[in-house]
Every structure is written in structure tokens, then in C-alpha cells.
Amino acid sequence: MLPQRSKDYEGAVHDLEGSTLVSEVGEPTAGPGEVLIQVAAAGLCGTDRHIVEGSHGCSARAIVLGHEVSGTVTRRPCVN
Ligand SMILES: [Zn+2]
Prior knowledge:
The chain is mostly beta strands. The chain has one domain (about 10-75). About 10% of the residues lie in helices and about 40% in strands. The protein has one helix at about 45-55, and strands at about 10-15, 20-25, 35-45, 60-65, 70-75. The chain has a three-stranded antiparallel sheet with strand order 2-1-4, with no helix packed on it. Strands 3-5 form a two-stranded antiparallel sheet. The mean pLDDT is about 85. Bound molecules: zinc ion (ZN). Zinc ion binds near residues 45, 47 and 68. The site of zinc ion (ZN) has 4 residues, from loops.
């Protein structure tokens, strides 16, 4: 079992300096047409590897790795 962390909203943040740290990322929001997921597990894939190695071409100053997730939808858009 993984140790419990004390922060509510953390991510593996990779920055342009080449560092990857688990950092506080702030409470996420769901925009129109999006859902909010309480992540149970996240996986790293080849895209994340290319971002860390600098061969992806991503121009963001910092990016949260691990876009392949499993979890529970906690907020979804209203559909009337
Ligand atoms: Zn992927």
C-alpha cells in the first residue's frame, strides 16, 4: 500500500528546467463539456517519457505528467 499524502491536489510536475517533482497543483476545475475525476491511479506513457526527455516538442513551462487515469467522476456538466 502506498503511503498517504497530506496534500489534496498534487501532481508529478515536469518543468522546462528538466525537473520533475510531486507538487501542489491547486484544485482543478471542470470547464464546459468536461468532467472532474477523483484519480485513483495514473499511468505514465510514451508521451510522458518524450516530454521528460525533451523530444516531445511541448512548449508549456510546466506540465502535469500522467494523462492516463482511472478514477471516479465527481463533477459533470449539466445536461438539460
Ligand atoms: Zn498516453
